Amino acid sequence: MASIQQQFRATKKQKIVDAAAGKKPLSSGDKAGDKLQVEQLAQQIADVQEILYAERKHKILIVLQGMDTSGKDGTVRGVFGKIDPLGVSSIAFKAPTAEEKAHDYLWRVHQQVPGLGEFTIFNRSHYEDVLITRVHDWIDNKECARRYEHIRAFEKMLAETGTVILKFFLHISSDAQKQRLEERIAYSDKHWKFDPNDLEERKYWSDYQRQYAKAIAETDAAHAPWYVIPADSKTHRNLAIASILLDTLQKLKPAFPPANPAFAKLKVV
Q1: Which segments constitute the Polyphosphate kinase-2-related domain (predicted)?
Q2: With contact defined as beta carbons under 8 Å apart, do 80 and 45 qualify?
Q3: Residues 18-55: tens digit of each pLDDT
Q4: Contact (CB, 8 A) for 195 and 136
Q5: Under CATH, domain 4-174+209-254 is a member of which superfamily?
Q6: What is the predicted pLDDT for the residue at 1?
Q7: What is d(CA 211, CA 131) in angstroms, rounded to the nearest whole number?
Q8: Where are the domains of the chain?
């Protein structure tokens, strides 16, 4: 039976646009049971993260990419919501500022990578610089190829200096995105989530699918793997990501630092 990583791991030959976004490969058939399992996995991740934070041997970088409404924010809440805030940060990369534009495109990204013992979640990431920029022809093929070289080298450097990298493509279907956008328009308490520009970007759906497929093929590596996560179901999206993350963390065999024998002689008065 394939491992959880193998089940969702992208391959260079995989055609992302043909993947079945709506599949629920981890479904137990019991929605309430699946949600409970996500909560249990999230708690286990939080428990392991506490040890990693104390151990200070590893740096964990999680990259979340996906079309609008694919559930990046929901993943942060559902999978990482039980972690002690001291040990985790979530970075939502927006359009670059004037200062950021004055530097190379990876400058703002490198400043946000995790330190020892830390979890950092990229809610969108440096991949925007080869996705939206290419869809709208803000850069040409030659510049895009250069950027892929930069990204591969950047991630290799991070991995070689102790960063564990996990990259997740939240693969939502066009129909599911349509439904979620309609809900954001229909319900006033969801208006804060809605950006009219999302409707414009939806017109480029096929272009984005092609660019995501290319980005994954160009940058998937053993030290920086891509996982394609069906994201039409929020519960099963979180279940898949939490399962992969916990399995990866447990393989690091984290342990609290050894006891200090000198402390046995101390007395609090």
Answers
A1: 31-253
A2: yes
A3: 454 555 667 677 888 889 999 999 999 999 999 999 99
A4: no
A5: P-loop containing nucleotide triphosphate hydrolases (3.40.50.300)
A6: 46
A7: 6
A8: 4-174+209-254
